[in-house]
Amino acid sequence: MPVKQNDYLNIVAHYESCLERYGDSHLGVDWPNRRDAHTRYRVMLGLIRETGPSRVTLLDFGCGLSHLYEYIRENGQDHIVYSGLDLSEKFLAVSSRKFPENTYYCVDILTEGANLPAFDYIVMNGVFTEKRELSFDAMFEYCQQVILQVFNLARRGIAFNVMSKHVDWEREDLFHLPFDTLASFLIKKLTRNFVFRNDYGLYEYTTYVYK
């Protein structure tokens, strides 16, 4: 059963409240600290198997304030051609002012007629980590619907992170997704060609799914 748009737009509204309160910072996209945010950027980019000089296109799905792009530039990964997408016009306005050279999309991929080009790789950093007031089932349905659409747009692979079940305690507003539940969905609906990364010290894991 499709998730109602208002349900996941409430998550967007939460992030916009963080932006209003904290501005252009890791707190503005609701990451607790800058160091861990940079760890996530490194892990997300680990999806890309090419190291240059061949150029690859990357869509930062849920790009927020384009901090991933800042990380790419700071680390000299010039072979990555970056584009960003977000449901929030407020976030995209900030990103576009900072980086007018980039292409940005304000598109809801779950709406009928949504139109996007294909990319070599698509990453979704933080898109599925918070469920806010959604139930687990509603959030998992939303997660599945988005992954199915995004995987169709990727020529080579996608990456996304969710909260781990293997923690001392779980927060009600976060999306803790069991490995087996996610693996079953990927195998049935997409491919067996995926990797779970649980090796970077945070209470989450990142999944790489390749064509």
What features would you describe in this structure?
This protein has helices spanning 5-22, 34-45, 67-74, 89-98, 136-153, 179-189, and strands spanning 56-61, 80-85, 103-105, 119-124, 154-163, 194-197, 204-210. The chain is an alpha/beta fold and 211 residues long. The protein has one domain: Vaccinia Virus protein VP39 (Rossmann fold, 3-Layer(aba) Sandwich). It has a seven-stranded mixed beta sheet. The model has no long low-confidence stretch (mean pLDDT 96).
| Major sheet strand order | 3-2-1-4-5-7-6
Strand residue percentage: 15-25%
What top-tier CATH class fits best?
A: Alpha Beta
Q: How many domains make up the 3D coordinates? A: 1
SSE series? HHEHEHEEHEHEE
Outline: globular
Low-pLDDT windows of residues: none
On the 0-100 scale, what is the average pLDDT?
A: 96
CATH architecture: 3-Layer(aba) Sandwich
Query: Which radius of gyration do the C-alpha atoms yield?
Result: 16 Å
User: How is the main sheet built?
Assistant: 7 strands, mixed
Give the CATH H-level superfamily.
Vaccinia Virus protein VP39
In CATH, the topology is named Rossmann fold
Looking at how many chains there are and whether they match, the oligomeric state comes to single chain
Number of helices, counting only DSSP H or I runs of 4 residues or more: 6
Give helix % range. Answer: 25-40%
Helices and strands: which structural class? alpha/beta
